Amino acid sequence: MAEGFVSSTIANRVSPIALADELECELSVVLPCLNEAGTVGACVAKALETLKTLRIVGEVIVVDNGSNDGSAEVARRAGARVVSEPRRGYGNALRHGVEEARGRFIIMADADESYDLSDLQRFVDGLRAGDDLVMGSRLRGRIEPGAMPRLHRIGNRVLSGILKLFFRGRVSDPHCGMRAFTKDAFERMQLTSGGMEFASEMVIKGVLAGMRISDLPIVLRPDGRVSHGPHLRSFRDGWRHLRYMLLLSPNYLFVIPGAACMLLGLIPLVLLGRGPEALAEVRFDYHYMILGSLLTILGFQAVMTGLFAKAYCHAARLYAPDRVLETFRRHFSLERGLILGTALLLAGFVVDARILIGWLRSGMGELNAIRPATRASTMMIIGAQINFASFFLSLLGMFPSDNNDASTIVTETRDEMGAARDSD
Questions:
Q1: pTM score > 0.85 for this model?
Q2: What is the span of the domain harbouring residue 222?
Q3: 417/189 Cα distance (integer angstroms)
Q4: pLDDT tens, 145-188?
Q5: Other Cβ atoms within 10 Å of 274 Cβ, number
């Protein structure tokens, strides 16, 4: 491997100091490749020429992702180091390419000539200045006619807006395929995605870890493919991006919809407790109260699921605690949860017991207690849910009294990330 690096460096004359030990390699340009024989050679040549011009000790890695058109041989002849990734997928190819990279800086781009591989200096400058991730921005730069279909433009803006809303990131074009990052930052991100959602995962985890991220306006050109169309599939890959963002955003997936559902359910459950009500000549009776009970229970379960998801994400060190979880942890504990849950259970049981006693005293005749029974069953179900949820949240390390304080671990890890970045 070392011999291959030295020989390719000599052949392409990257810089006068490129004959130094391979550990001094500063930059690796990683290009995922699936049947790009018509364009990958030009991309490799341009990247190597740019490294030579900038006098940067570097390499170009082409990750062959199962090509059957001779792409690997074309890339090899152009001077790239070719590695193979048999698992199909954009993320799989890039993760393997970065793992194989020798440079402490990585620039990734597509092998279809849509990105300008002579424009590397600005990305390297950002990393040398201390950025963990330097994102290319097509939206702040220029998209040439024919480079991006209208549907993709709309979808990209929608998905970018959702990512900014969910994770409060300031990246203008989080799905851009040309970006640069330090290998250390990449390792700290612990990326796992195998498909196109890899692009979203990198930005999300970088934002959640508090990494230093910058934007650079770039130009997107029409790709040079002639044998096949783009690998991106609009709806399939768009859904994969959205799905990943939702899975890492329990607030928007569970907590906020659940809280809204609970509020909507509590209104009829409370207001119709004494009897029917009318609004603008529309009569609301116990049917709406039963619906309110169902919505309250459903909403509460969604909120609890959101807390489970947040606790898991933090225990798994996916990101540090947020305000919602921190506030909950400060004021709640296993014992308080059990007290609250048991109190609701007992309150509901008392109401049901009074209904039963009244029915027995009336000679077990007609029973007309739908309203109090609905309230009682709601309280008992939610009380039981609180008890079970309290134990499960405690198991996940949610409460401060537990020995396994997940938030402390995650916060310390985040501090370690910052210290490691500063030391770079």
A1: no
A2: 2-247
A3: 10
A4: 988 888 888 888 999 999 999 888 789 999 999 999 999 999 99
A5: 8
